[in-house]
Fold this sequence. Notes:
- By secondary structure, the chain is α+β, with helices and mostly antiparallel strands.
- Helices cover 31% and strands 33% of the residues.
- It has six helices and seven strands; from the N terminus they run βααβαββββααβα.
- It has helices spanning 9-12, 14-20, 31-39, 95-100, 108-111, 122-133; strands at residues 2-7, 23-25, 45-50, 56-63, 68-69, 79-94, 117-120.
- Strands 1, 2, 3, 4, 5, 6 and 7 form a seven-stranded mixed sheet that branches.
- A hairpin with a 5-residue loop joins strand 3 and strand 4.
- The longest helix is centred in the last third of the chain and has 12 residues, at 122-133.
- The protein is globular.
Amino acid sequence: MNWLFKEEPTHYSFDDLVRDGKTSWSGVKNPLAQKHLRSVKKGDRVFYYHTGDEKAVVGIAKAASAAYPDPEDKSGKYVAVDLVPVAPLPRPVTLAEIKADPAFEDFPLVRISRLSVMPVTDAEWTRIEGLAQRRRS
């Protein structure tokens, strides 16, 4: 399965993940994002998306674990996933580029903009990788 995880780069950027080599993706509270996080399996591919001013897919990571109880959550309701970096994209793929492409009309990033963890179809994954290879016009 493929996923997109969103994070504010001032909070924890893809470069931070590369530097650390691994992180626990925790603190997710949105019920739909939690549902998606519970479905993550070890080895799943993850696009790393910078929110805020950047609004772009910037890197590829991999789930290093399946979902497990979020150690920061005392209620026991939430889960976390370990994430490791794979590689930065050749160039960031912006939200504006994604929104301008009709292939993404059903993509959760376009439809549910606040969602922090979402599935990515194989076709969407391939399309984003292709966009990352292109020169910006």
